[in-house]
Design brief:
- The protein is mainly α.
- 76% of the residues lie in helices and 0% in strands.
- It contains 14 helices and no strands.
């Protein structure tokens, strides 16, 4: 029996390493390509052995593009979207879960029904509205259509529903109101879930391409995903430069995940009932 379990463990370990290699290899290949000169990439093809360290593509991207502006736009819009989505989603979920008012069930039904409507179906209407409001080529034009994230409301509502009613009654008896309950009692209890939702929302906003591509027409207002297309248009099919800007664009998200991955894991365990 022990030998069988040992073999199973080795098989699982090998499968895990193979799966990790499949995920890491494209990043490794992109990094190696970005360190080559354009001449080597064109003449020798896409090699997988680091035989050259050439930072010309990184220097070219930093000096000859609006990469700094793209970073500012991406970080600024993603942070604002994350904060607004988390705060508004938490408050909406609290109202639906803990407060009693006419139309509460209908409101939650609308939130659930929003999953049935693909975002692409609303693009034309959103673009007309944003254009009529004069918000094209502005942060507001990028941010507003991305503030509706129903999954945040649903996750928070499930958490609020699971909180014992005795806790709410005790706070109310002590003179605490809804503000105290939400931000001083419930928020510390679900801090791990809030962190996980914030990271996921930030990554979604950072990687958003379709809507910013429609809402922005000037290069200085573009975000990182949209700006990558301009690098290609400006220099032609230069793979080293494309890989350089792609890696620089993905770096903040990767760093954020590495820093907060423990929080994300704890949040998943809590929400699944494994912990506590």
């Amino acid at each position: 029996m022990k030998s069988v379990r040992k073999i199973e463990g080795w098989v699982l370990t090998v499968c895990t390493f193979l799966a990790a290699a499949l995920w890491i290899f494209p990043l490794y290949w992109a990094f190696i390509t970005s360190l080559r000169s354009e001449e080597r990439v064109v003449s020798d093809g896409a090699g997988i052995v680091p035989d050259e360290i050439n930072l010309a593509s990184y220097v070219d991207i930093l000096w000859n593009t609006n990469l700094v502006n793209w970073y500012i736009n991406s970080i600024g819009t993603a942070l604002i979207i994350t904060i607004v989505v988390i705060v508004s989603g938490m408050m909406c979920a609290y109202a639906i879960s803990q407060m009693r008012f006419p139309g509460r069930r209908i409101l939650y039904g609308v939130v659930l029904a929003s999953f049935m409507v693909p975002s692409q179906a609303l693009v034309v209407t959103q673009f007309i509205l944003i254009n009529d409001m004069g918000l094209i080529n502005t942060w507001a034009g990028i941010i507003l259509p991305q503030l509706i994230v129903p999954v945040v409301i649903i996750v928070y509502k499930q958490f609020f529903d699971a909180v014992p009613k005795e806790l709410r009654e005790a706070v109310v008896l002590d003179g605490g109101g809804d503000y105290t309950l939400l931000f001083k009692i419930y928020l510390p209890l679900n801090w791990g879930i809030t962190t996980a939702l914030a990271i996921i929302t930030f990554i979604m906003a950072w990687n958003q391409f379709f809507w910013p591509f429609l809402a922005v027409t000037t290069e200085d207002m573009m975000t990182i995903p949209v700006g990558i297309t301009q690098v290609k248009d400006a220099f032609g099919v230069f793979y080293a430069r494309l890989m350089s800007v792609a890696l620089l664009g993905a770096m903040p998200v990767a760093v954020a995940y590495l820093i907060f991955q423990k929080k994300v894991t704890e949040a998943v365990m809590i929400s699944s009932g494994v912990k506590g």
